[in-house]
UniProtKB/TrEMBL annotation:
Catalyzes the formation of acetyl phosphate from acetate and ATP. Can also catalyze the reverse reaction. This is Acetate kinase. The gene is ackA_2. It comes from Persicobacter psychrovividus. PROSITE patterns: ACETATE_KINASE_1, ACETATE_KINASE_2. The lineage of its organism: Bacteria, Pseudomonadati, Bacteroidota, Cytophagia, Cytophagales. PANTHER family: ACETATE KINASE, ACETATE KINASE-RELATED.
Amino acid sequence: MKILVLNCGSSSIKYQLLNMPEATELANGIVEKIGLSGSFLKTKDKNGNKVILEGDIMDHTAGIEYVLGVLKSERFGVVSSLEEIQAVGHRVVHGGETFKDSAIVTPEVLKEIEKCIDLAPLHNPPNLLGIKSMMDILPGVPQVAVFDTAFHQSMPAHSYMYAIPYELYKKYGIRRYGFHGTSHKYVSRRACEILGLDYNKAKIISCHLGGGASIAAIDGGRSVDTSMGLTPVEGMIMGTRAGDLDLGVLTFIMKKEDISVNTANTLINKRSGVLGITGISSDMRDIELEAFEKGNDRAQLALDMYDYRIKKYIGGYAVAMGGVDAIIFTGGVGENGDVTRAGVCRGLEFMGVDFDHEVNKSFRAEERIITKPDSKVKVMVVPTNEELVIAEDSYRLTVVEAVEA
């Protein structure tokens, strides 16, 4: 069964075509600069060479039509007809409290996703555009919504509630939701497969570190806490996001600088994080270069703060779960940043982490155990595969559960 996975951003569409249940990748690529000048589609030819196809792509419908055209083209095609695509899985960032699992898209599901726009105003609208476009282009083909937030709906109330007037929670749904759920789900499950652990009994701390970053405490296959909150700005120091911040700091800045709510939102989302600390870049590779080769004190400070914040969450989650069997690094920084991994794990010996510095430096973006064989707590790198999770859920809902019903 061929399943197309779509991840629609405000001006981009990531896609992947997989054959399920074998999980064989048939094609992947990305459309960028939708609605802007210089829009293009990036993919690979049949020999695996990278190819960029330029063209005017004015909206998401045109972008998806472009993707489908490439998938069945003579030069790049992997299907002879669009009828071979039997389901489409969509990444949807926010499902609120309504969705504790992925869902086949119906008119009622669409309405519920639309209700969550206030909770994810930058993400849910393009996600919806992708769903509606595919419903028009491939009518009758099942569309499946897979929510970033669903995996974290297993959190207990004492983890997800904020200490604000309870009426505000009831009125607006203000609580911790968490994100990167499909990533945390995949890498925690995959780590247990590699280590031979029972996923339903293991205690895992998953660190998804990229431009956006979050940590999840996963106890017995269920998320019991996570660092991101109502929005993706809470928790870790990120590329441009402030992460955890005294609320009084924000109101103080707003008063002193005489700035609006919108400007303050831009400040904590796009001008803070490692970019704000260093004034150089949001890319950890640039920060490491400045710190180690040029001796930039602010770059070193940013690295120290970044590692320290992660370390605090790991310690806190280990206590919350009453122990930890494995710590996982994933995401662009987690998979490639050996310096970050070493910095985070330095000092965790008391927890039973016997870190292997030589192994840690010897690879990039591969599945590896980076602790010594006798380490009580295993530390691993597991490259994430959110598209596979979306395809698996799409297959489960459209085939497996449909047959069982």
